[in-house]
What we know:
alpha+beta; 12 helices
Amino acid sequence: MNKRLFVLLVVLMSLSLIGLIFVQSFWIKKSVENKEEQFSNVVSEALNSVTNQIEEREKKNYYDRYLYAKDSIGELKETHFRNFFFIDRDVNSNEILLYEHGILEEDYGISSTFFDNGEVGDTTFIKNYTSKRTTSIFREDLNIDGKGYRLTPIQRLEKIGGLRDIDKYAVEDLFTNYAKRVPIHKRVSKQEIELLVQRELADRGVDIAFEYGVYSNGLPTKLKSRKFKYSEANIYKSPLFTDFDGISNFDLLVSFPKKKRFLVQSILGLALLSLLFTLIIVIAYSGAIYQLIRQKQISEIKSDFINNMTHEFKTPIATINLAVEAIRNPKIIGDQEKVSRYLQMIRDENKRMHAQVENVLRISKLEKNQLDISKDRVDAHDIINDAITHVELIVQDRGGYIETHLDAQRSEVLANEMHFTNVIVNILDNAIKYSNDAPKIDVFTEVVKNSILIKVQDQGAGMSKAVLKRVFEKFYREHTGDIHNVKGHGLGLAYVKKIVDDHQGEVYAESEKDKGSTFYIKLPLI
């Protein structure tokens, strides 16, 4: 994939993911704000209902006590009756309309204890009014002689009852003004406030703990819950005991300590579902990005592998071609020594190419679990010595050395001799290839608990931390640009890890740039 196109694709996917997360966050924030607004409206409505019910209850108490007091007095102190009427005559129908409205005024002497207030006079005069309204319709009929007449009643409607609402309001105003002189804790109780607030909130679907308090002109009264604390930001209030001028000295204040939790829980289901889908998208996005990066890395590794394989096959092929051309030369074909030397070169180069192909095929079979690895009781020290003989001449040719420090008291393991020998050879070969000067290699063994630890230490070029993390990956080789000073195709250490894992062992490395590397192989003892 083109690098620029890859970067553009990653940027677009990242922007879309960031946009999605932003939209989800904005939606959750707006949902909480909407829920908070709905909560405020519901609470305000509930508190208004509570204060109205308290006020109506107080008025009813006064009315009940007033009627009881009036009935207990029995005799009237004074009675007045006023009667208003008018007459209207319709000349077309000879009908006369008579409307009468009488008001009966009754005075009672009621003790001042009615209002529970000792500051008023010994007797408070309260009047009861009763309204009587009568509508009568008469028809005017002449006598037979045409001189006299009589009134014949056609319809009569009579209604007896109380006065109009405006008169009722006047009585309520009287009660309200007297009630202002009563202490607030005698007008309403804590139990009444708690029960009413709880019931009104529950009727509106709000099941949440609350604290309350009644304040008089901004100052607290005795009516408040134990944990109530005044906070301007988290208080809902409603005026209590409002008079006919709309003025109130008291406010019912309610706070909700767990309001935020309640609001969050109200949208928690949808929010969690939204977050779940967002998480799925993030995981899918991360997986896609990882796969894209991985594919890009694999593409680069394969390109390096092909370049290295091409380079490594190119040299043997060129050598074989030159040897064949030399043998075909009439001057050389008669020289048996030279022909033998060129044939040996052809054989060696062919063997080298065959080994590389076998290495690739071996890794492929290992990945498909098609490689049959039988294990026998073998001595790890013998395998190490055998592996050293495979590379000893190369090390000596370069003026280096391989020293062994086989100090393990027990060295028998269950392993495949051929494959495990190849493991040690690959690690030794790696140490030789990455030694810029004469290879200096030390091999150690020791027993760690119930395992043997094999340590191969060199003083070569070493590896950076980034390379060290990926050194056992298939096809991976440290980038050296276009310089192929180290031959290989990134399969040797991948093969090592596969074989060691198959032996229930462990392989790892330590390295520092320009200070050499140390490879560790840990196998269980038998």
